[in-house]
Design a protein that fits this description.
- Helices cover 43% and strands 18% of the residues.
- Helix 6 links the parallel strand 9 and strand 10.
């Protein structure tokens, strides 16, 4: 648990153990072994280790484009079960999780949706990750999937169901609320409507109120509910940041202090340069608006740095203007970035 600028608690849902995550083949994390195979380089307490990248990933378009889906590589190696690759892969997932935990994660978010198209394979992968994270005995998993059956598989695999966070329930997925009520665990309640993403502020607030009512009706306690008003990249919708922040304020006013408010805060900077600065400022603005949690990578978004950021500085205010719609599409922000004015803040 970290704190906000005002000193209040801020729960971190560490987002980095996702089958979608990539590292660059040309970067420091990827090496070529003596036999010519590509491998992911990582450090453990016992020294440097290498996770061989499965051939199936080396044949993908992502790999050809210079990207390696590193979490997917580890999961495939574990599920294949061949040694020593499986042991290296297990150690790699543990290393990723320990970094998140050391940086302040209260939950480790697990997402395996891209491991395969078949739900059965996704379910197996989720069970593998739950076992690894729970064996560390530090913080619980957050079970994240677009498929409720995958969340259910992770729930059934857990030895400590009451500690879990389910990500997420919505008007389209009320069965996830039933899972949370049965397990007596926490749940993210999305402000998505029955037909998809909400438009503007009002729809976010109304949808949040409805999903919380559905949760409490099923016996989920208010302090186990994490409302997600949903973050959209400001590169796509200039008012997206302002919508989210206003929705947070209004949801807090409407539903009080017992519920939690969270969101995929780093989504706001997709498609833009200077993402670290933008994300830091958005976390700070969201906390000021009433959010007490965030789905973030705490290694990249250090809350100590967020709290210490200078609100009077030009970089902070450029990012804030971008995020609140005062600088639509970030024209002033991008001009400053290209001029090198933000180099020390990125």
């Amino acid at each position: 648990m970290r704190t906000t600028r005002a000193g209040g608690p801020f729960a971190i849902i560490g987002e980095n153990i996702h089958a979608t995550r990539t590292v660059l083949r040309s970067g420091r994390h990827v090496a070529t072994l003596p036999d010519g195979r590509a491998a992911i380089r990582f450090e453990t307490a016992d020294g440097e280790r290498f996770l061989t990248i499965p051939e199936s990933l080396c044949e993908t378009n992502d790999f050809a484009a210079g990207k390696v889906k590193h979490v997917q590589a580890a999961l495939l190696a574990i599920m294949r079960g061949s040694e020593p690759d499986a042991s290296d892969a297990h150690a790699y997932i543990e290393t990723l999780a320990r970094r998140q935990i050391a940086a302040g994660a209260d939950y480790v978010d697990l997402n395996v949706d891209e491991i395969a198209q078949e739900p059965s394979t996704q379910q197996r992968a989720m069970r593998v990750l739950v076992a690894i994270i729970e064996a560390l005995g530090t913080v619980p998993p957050s079970l994240d999937s677009s498929n409720a059956s995958v969340i259910q598989a992770g729930l059934e695999a857990s030895a400590h169901q009451e500690r879990l966070l389910l990500n997420s329930a919505s008007a389209e997925r009320l069965d996830v609320l039933e899972m949370a009520a049965s397990a007596r665990c926490a749940v993210i309640a999305s402000a998505a409507g029955e037909t998809g993403l909400p438009a503007g502020v009002d729809e976010r607030v109304v949808n949040a109120e409805r999903i919380v009512a559905e949760a409490t009706t099923r016996g989920v306690s208010a302090n186990a509910i994490y409302i997600d008003p949903l973050v959209i990249p400001v590169a796509v919708e200039p008012d997206a940041g302002a919508w989210f922040l206003e929705a947070v304020t209004r949801i807090r006013q409407s539903l009080g202090g017992d519920v939690h408010i969270t969101g995929g805060l780093s989504n706001v900077s997709f498609g833009l340069p200077g993402r670290r600065l933008i994300n830091d400022v958005f976390i700070d603005l969201a906390a000021a608006a009433g959010a007490d949690s965030g789905i973030i990578d705490p290694v990249a978004s250090d809350m100590t740095r967020v709290i210490a950021s200078d609100k009077g500085s030009r970089p902070y205010n450029l990012a804030a203007s971008l995020l609140t719609g005062a600088d639509p599409y970030g024209m002033e922000f991008l001009q400053a970035y290209r001029a090198g004015e933000l180099a020390g803040d990125l």
